[in-house]
Amino acid sequence: MIAVDGKIEQIIADFPILARPTSRGKRLVYLDSAATSQKPRAVIQALVDYYEQYNANIHRGVYELAARATAEFEQARVKLARFIGAETNEIVWVRNTTEAVNLVAYSWGNANVRAGDAILLTELEHHSDLVPWQLLAQRTGAELRFIPVDERGRYVLDDLDALLDGCKLVACAHVSNTLGTILPLDVVIPRAHAAGAVVLVDGAQGAPHLAVNVKALDADFYTFSGHKMLGPTGIGVLYGKHELLAGMPPFFSGGDMIRKVGYAQTTFADPPRRFEAGTSNIADAIAYGVAVEYLQGVGMEWVREHERALTAYALQRLAEFEPRGLAIYGPRDPAAISGVISFNLADVHAHDLASILDTEGICVRAGHHCTMPLMEKMGWSATARASFYIYNTEADVDALCAGIEKAARLFGI
Ligand code: PMP
Known about the structure:
Oligomer: single chain
Bound molecules: 4'-deoxy-4'-aminopyridoxal-5'-phosphate
CATH class of the largest domain: Alpha Beta
Radius of gyration: 22 Å
Helix content: 25-40%
Order of helices and strands: HEHHEHEHEHEHEHEEHEEHHEEHEEHEH
CATH architecture of the largest domain: 3-Layer(aba) Sandwich
């Protein structure tokens, strides 16, 4: 059961959108945080403050406004570094996880991956951590391999060492956005390193929900997006070990990433600036810093425990519908998943189910969740997906179940 300590009420009160009824006058039951999270007032206010009080471009201006904008922007980098236990110069601002993966695939990948090398992914990868590697494999002649999952979406690591043989790179999701499965990075990363591979962790669903320390994990790259962890859209982080970043050529080029430019030739700034061409997403980076401060204030251990308890409750409540044909996918162990449950109600299409839930103010996602190969492997055309975050409660799970009951009755189930 979830601790009743008043903390959750305080958290909910910090999210203005949760107090707004839907157009049908229902309470908003937001169960789609794996797609994007809601934002607390402090994050929204940080955006307003920047534009109202100190909007200026960073790094070049000598006047007070520009100095303040630069200081706040760089301070946000410090906050993000602390949040994942990194050094400040290992935090590269990007737009999102997708851009971070592409940056590594082009900059590190083009320079290091050759024909005959292998790249190891998992069968649970989001398209963002799959397609860039497919393109790299096509450019270089490298081979793609996959860590398999069983019928419940649990990793099968029995052949890991064989899969790692000849591997240059492992790119793997910390947490699956479709099934919530948590990858045991403490097993995979040391074995990947022993095989000589560099490891990129797609942390889009990891950093928002689990306490992450990139040094303890010994991840070489760790990528994540602000919008899934209380921050704005359009800002994300590529963490890279400094010695790796220092050896990588630029991805984008232009202003702000240079050391010296001549008409014929250019030398480049050290990381992270080398990878931040053009005017950065200043306001969003600053607000992202506020978002991670908020999460630290709540405590990442609390976040994990809250979501684990909520997931356990949801699995138990959803199981009541199993005799009527509700299929629950993914591992059934709340300790093995992070706040995501995919399901289907008998032969009701996931989109129809999601539309009926929407009439009750309940937001769930329906579709392939950007994991089309997984859907095909499992033989699912689509699933409905409920995903939880710090502001969700047992009342939200109860509302979801009442909505499923309504849908079941409508379809005569
Ligand atoms: N990886 C995973 C596991 C995700 O869940 C997502 C977003 N759904 C992404 C990558 C891509 O994130 P973004 O769209 O912010 O680049």
